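Lecture notes, continued. The same structure-token format from the folding unit now serves as the input rather than the output. Read the line below as a description of shape only.
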């Protein structure tokens, strides 16, 4: 089921897929990630594949990057491990941030991009505090020197507001999982993105 959803999203032209199956063991996570990478390479539009927290799995599977959450190793330590090894220079290192200070720290440590949020209320992000809202997103985007991706309660009705606030992109789970037609959703998201330019 999960593999089919990843394939459908990539076939529809998703920019990237984040593999974040925290309950899987290392071997199963590696297999899932390798499958996602192969799907991305063979797809019509080359999607990027990023793995949540597991730098080892991302590198072993040939993924395009790793995304570090609150429980992962600090960005600076991850960069110290990556730099001396033969990791391709386009390897992405993303970080989840919940304050402007965390965004600045991540950028200074060498992060490629940050997820910032939650922007809107969503059950999965309530543990990280109240919603940041669009004004805070705009402030963070203006100050950031790396791309800021809005996360938390993102849906088709508020995507345009996030992009207008300066977000480089959006990340969502429910919106994509519940989409009946991934290609139609992708087209609508592109229309919303183009309307903010």
């Amino acid at each position: 089921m999960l593999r089919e959803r990843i394939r459908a999203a990539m076939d529809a032209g998703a920019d990237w897929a984040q593999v974040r199956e925290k309950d899987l063991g290392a071997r199963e996570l590696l297999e899932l990630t390798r499958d996602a990478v192969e799907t991305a390479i063979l797809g019509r539009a080359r999607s990027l594949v990023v793995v949540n927290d597991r730098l080892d799995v991302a590198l072993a599977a040939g993924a395009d990057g790793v995304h570090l959450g609150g429980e992962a190793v600090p960005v600076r330590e991850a960069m110290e491990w990556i730099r001396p090894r033969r990791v391709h220079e386009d390897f992405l290192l993303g970080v989840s941030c919940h304050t402007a200070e965390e965004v600045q720290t991540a950028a200074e440590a060498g992060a490629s991009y940050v997820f910032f949020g939650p922007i809107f209320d969503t059950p999965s992000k309530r543990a990280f505090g109240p919603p940041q809202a669009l004004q805070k997103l705009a402030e963070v985007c203006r100050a950031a020197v790396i791309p800021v991706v809005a996360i938390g309660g993102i849906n088709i009705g508020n995507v345009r507001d996030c992009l207008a606030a300066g977000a480089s992109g959006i990340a969502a789970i429910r919106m994509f999982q519940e989409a009946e037609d991934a290609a139609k959703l992708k087209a609508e998201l592109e229309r919303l993105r183009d309307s903010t330019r």
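Point for the exam: The CA atoms of residues 79 and 110 lie 7 Å apart.
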